[in-house]
Structure formats: structure tokens, C-alpha cells
């Protein structure tokens, strides 16, 4: 159901667009079974394949349904083979990182969901010239920990962001005044055509929670340049200070982080709070009392409840202030316009 007077100003980046544009459907359940069966001979046994893989537990919000087909490719060759099969079968492909910035719809995702969780994508390799090659599947927590151990300053702001390097590149994740692309020198990616390319930061179009090139490509890894060399204890102290700050200001319940983008010069959380929405609840989805820009799952929330709550928050904020809030959190496999 759609509200009749819904605001239309949703921006272009809300949908994790399929990196391989197909028809969006494989005809009927038999179609998905056939597509799934066709993948096995194309990849090595190390690549995990699953039909109707539940995605809720693979996200921090813990809501939503299954991927029609899910794969954890174990090598670039396997990833390319999966991409070729999807193109041939006109199946949409979506990339899942640590699932910390998205909501999976209750009906699941109509496509092939790829997750770079195999160890092959989790590399951390200082290059001896002050730079670090990081795999797209490397957790930001591990990037921070290994950088601190190696005495590399500059990644501390990423401490506490529960995502992967790939997701942080796609979202240009930021915190404590720092942005992911502040520390990027180049990005290795797999294009729609299945070609591995390296793009220098200067060739990429990056914005607030947005990287245009990664809307239609899969990040494989990045060459990162830390700001400087320093002693491990000092770096850890800074990370601890940031962690304390998060601990004091953010909810503990499952969430997808800040739900809405901050309108220019305004804190979305403050606006939501001033509209009296803290504690607003639909089923088990709730506007956090700790931080109003977090929607939390109080236990058994569904994606439909989260979406209904988001609809109410946007409507109230718009009614009271005239501000149209734009979700930062992505609706996996769909556009927000389809549901808000
Ligand atoms: C408690 C909490 C705190 C948070 N704090 C912050 C914060 O301070 N700052 C901030 O910016 N964010 C924050 N977030 C949001 C989130 O953690 C970041 O956006 C993170 O970078 C997302 O990474 P991910 O791996 O989880 O990506 P996912 O959520 O899995 O995916 C996000 C998008 O990236 C795409 N993607 C993932 N991997 C790749 C890849 N390899 N190639 C191409 N596209 C890819 C997905 O398709 C999707 O479109 C927070 C979230 C939570 C739950």
C-alpha cells in the first residue's frame, strides 16, 4: 500500500542497484532451481552456494527474507564465472558486505546475492611504502586492529563501524570527521563486463555516503594510504576514545546505523527527536530512545514494521518541519520509492 501524498524527493543512490542488470526475474521457482543447478559445475568446491539462503542473520538489523540464490565466491575466477552465468541467465546480482547498512525486504531478494566473506577477500598487506592493500571482505574492525599493530595512523575513525572495506567504499563510510575515501589511493573492482580494473581515487566520483563507480561494479579491494606512522599504544588510545564515544551515544540493540542522511547543516537525529519521535514504535521496530536517527529491532521486528516506522517518521518530520528525510540505509534489492 502506498500513501497518496508521499514525498518524492528520494535521491538516486538509495537502491543497491544490481551490478549485473538483468530482467530482475528468472521465470518461476523452477527457473531459480535450474539457475542454481547450473552454477555448481562452474565454480570450485571452495565456493559456497545456497538456494533460498536466509539473509536476516547476515545483517545487523536482523530482518528480512532469503536470497533466491546466494554465493560466497572463493576466488576471482569463481566470481567471474558467477557473473557470467548471471548475465547469461538475465539474473540480477547484488553484493552483500557485512549487512550493516541495509534492510532486507521480508520477501527476500530476487537475484543472485554475492558475499565476499571467504578468507581470500580479507587480506591486509602493508606494501613497504607506507601503504596497505586491503581486501573488500576485510572487516573494518580487523583493518583498524591490524593497522594499529603495524603502527599505521589514519584509520582510527573507522573503529566501531561494523562493515567491511567493500561496503565502506561503496558507502564512503565516515565518522569522527573522517571519510573512507580520505585514505583511499586506488580501488580494484570487477566491472559489469567481468573485467578486473584498477581505478585511481581521482577517477572516482565520491560523495556523502555514495560512490558512483561501485553502484555498478564489485569492489575487490583497495590500496589505502594511512596518514602517518606512529606508536601502537597512541593509535589504540585514540580508537578507545572513539569507541567510548560510540558506546555512550549509540543504541546496543540491532540496527543498521544512522537511518537517514543528515540534511545539509542539520542533524537528522536532532530533527527526529524534536518532532517527539523517540520511542515511536511499530511492532518490534522502534525509534531508539538513545539516538533518534537509529531504528532498532527490539526482538522480532519484520522489514515491513521497519518500513512502516520509517514512513511514519518521514511523514511526521515533513509535516512539522517541511524537511524530507532521505534514507541512508539501503533497501536491499529494491528502491525506497517502491515502498515509502
Ligand atoms: C551500530 C552501527 C554503527 C554505524 N556507524 C556508522 C558510521 O559511523 N559511519 C558510517 O558511515 N556508517 C555507519 N554504519 C553503517 C555501515 O556500517 C557502513 O555504511 C558500512 O560501511 C557498510 O558496510 P557493509 O560491509 O556492512 O555493507 P552492506 O551494508 O552489506 O552493503 C552496503 C552497500 O554496499 C554494497 N557493497 C557491499 N560490499 C560491496 C563490494 N565489495 N562492492 C560493491 N558494493 C558493495 C552493497 O551492495 C550495498 O549497496 C553503522 C552501522 C551500524 C549497525
Write a structural description:
By secondary structure, the protein is α+β, with helices and mostly antiparallel strands. It has three domains: 28-119, 2-Layer Sandwich (Uridine Diphospho-n-acetylenolpyruvylglucosamine Reductase, domain 2), CATH 3.30.43.10; 122-234, Uridine Diphospho-n-acetylenolpyruvylglucosamine Reductase, domain 3 (2-Layer Sandwich), CATH 3.30.465.10; 251-338, Uridine Diphospho-n-acetylenolpyruvylglucosamine Reductase, domain 1 (Alpha-Beta Complex), CATH 3.90.78. Helices cover 26% and strands 24% of the residues. The chain has seven helices and 21 strands. The chain has helices at 28-39, 76-89, 140-149, 165-171, 232-249, 268-274, 303-321, and strands at residues 48-54, 66-72, 93-96, 102-103, 109-115, 124-126, 132-135, 152-153, 174-175, 178-179, 184-190, 196-200, 206-207, 210-211, 218-224, 228-229, 255-258, 281-282, 285-287, 294-297, 330-331. The strands form seven sheets. The protein has a five-stranded antiparallel sheet with strand order 6-7-15-11-12, covered by helices on one side. A hairpin with a 2-residue loop joins β18 (281-282) and β19. α3 packs antiparallel against α5. The protein is globular and about 55 Å long. It starts with 27 loop residues before the first helix and ends in a 9-residue tail after the last strand. The relative contact order is 0.15. Bound molecules: flavin-adenine dinucleotide.
Number of strands: 21
Biggest sheet, spatial arrangement of strands: 6-7-15-11-12
Rg on CA atoms, Å: 20 Å
Helix count from the secondary structure assignment: 7
β content, as a range? 15-25%
Mean pLDDT: 91
Ligands:
flavin-adenine dinucleotide
Element pattern in H and E: HEEHEEEEEHEHEEEEEEEEHEHEEEHE
Task: Provide the CATH top-level class of the largest domain.
Answer: Alpha Beta
Q: What is the CATH topology classification name of the largest domain?
A: Uridine Diphospho-n-acetylenolpyruvylglucosamine Reductase, domain 3
The major β-sheet equals: 5 strands, antiparallel
- CATH architecture descriptor text of the largest domain: 2-Layer Sandwich
Distance between the termini: 9 Å
> From the helix content, strand content and strand pairing, which structural class follows?
alpha+beta
Number of domains: 3
Helix content: 25-40%
Shape, please?
globular
| Poorly predicted runs | 1-16
Amino acid at each position: 500500500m502506498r500513501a497518496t501524498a508521499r514525498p518524492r524527493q528520494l535521491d538516486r543512490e538509495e537502491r543497491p542497484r544490481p551490478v549485473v542488470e538483468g530482467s530482475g526475474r528468472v521465470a518461476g521457482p523452477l527457473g531459480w532451481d535450474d539457475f542454481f543447478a547450473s552454477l555448481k559445475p562452474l565454480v570450485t568446491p571452495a565456493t559456497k552456494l545456497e538456494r533460498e539462503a536466509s539473509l536476516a542473520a547476515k545483517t545487523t538489523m536482523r530482518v528480512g527474507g532469503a536470497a533466491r540464490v546466494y554465493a560466497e565466491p572463493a576466488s576471482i575466477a569463481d566470481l567471474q564465472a558467477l557473473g557470467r552465468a548471471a548475465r547469461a541467465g538475465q539474473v540480477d546480482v547484488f553484493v552483500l558486505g557485512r549487512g550493516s547498512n541495509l534492510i532486507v525486504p521480508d520477501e527476500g531478494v530476487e537475484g543472485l546475492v554475492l558475499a565476499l566473506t571467504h578468507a581470500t577477500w580479507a587480506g591486509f598487506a602493508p606494501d613497504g611504502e607506507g601503504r596497505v592493500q586491503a581486501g573488500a571482505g576485510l572487516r573494518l574492525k580487523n583493518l583498524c586492529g591490524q593497522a594499529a599493530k603495524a603502527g599505521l595512523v589514519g584509520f582510527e575513525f573507522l573503529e566501531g563501524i561494523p562493515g567491511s572495506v567493500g561496503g565502506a567504499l561503496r558507502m564512503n563510510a565516515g565518522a569522527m570527521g573522517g571519510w573512507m575515501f580520505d585514505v583511499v589511493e586506488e580501488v580494484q573492482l570487477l566491472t559489469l563486463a567481468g573485467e578486473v580494473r584498477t581505478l585511481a581515487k581521482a577517477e572516482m566520483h565520491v560523495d556523502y555516503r555514495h560512490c558512483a563507480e561501485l553502484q555498478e561494479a564489485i569492489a575487490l579491494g583497495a590500496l589505502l594510504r594511512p596518514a602517518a606512522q606512529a606508536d601502537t599504544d597512541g593509535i589504540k588510545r585514540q580508537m578507545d576514545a572513539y569507541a567510548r564515544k560510540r558506546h555512550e551515544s549509540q543504541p546496543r540493540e540491532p540496527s543498521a546505523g544512522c537511518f537517514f542522511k543528515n540534511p545539509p547543516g542539520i542533524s537528522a537525529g536532532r530533527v527526529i527527536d524534536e518532532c517527539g519521535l523517540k520511542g515511536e514504535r511499530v511492532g518490534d521496530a522502534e525509534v531508539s530512545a538513545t539516538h533518534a536517527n537509529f531504528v532498532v529491532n527490539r526482538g522480532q521486528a519484520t522489514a515491513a514494521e521497519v518500513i512502516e516506522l520509517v514512513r511514519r517518521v518521514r511523514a511526521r518530520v515533513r509535516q512539522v518541519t517541511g524537511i524530507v528525510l532521505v534514507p541512508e540505509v539501503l533497501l536491499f534489492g529494491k528502491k525506497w520509492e517502491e515502498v515509502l
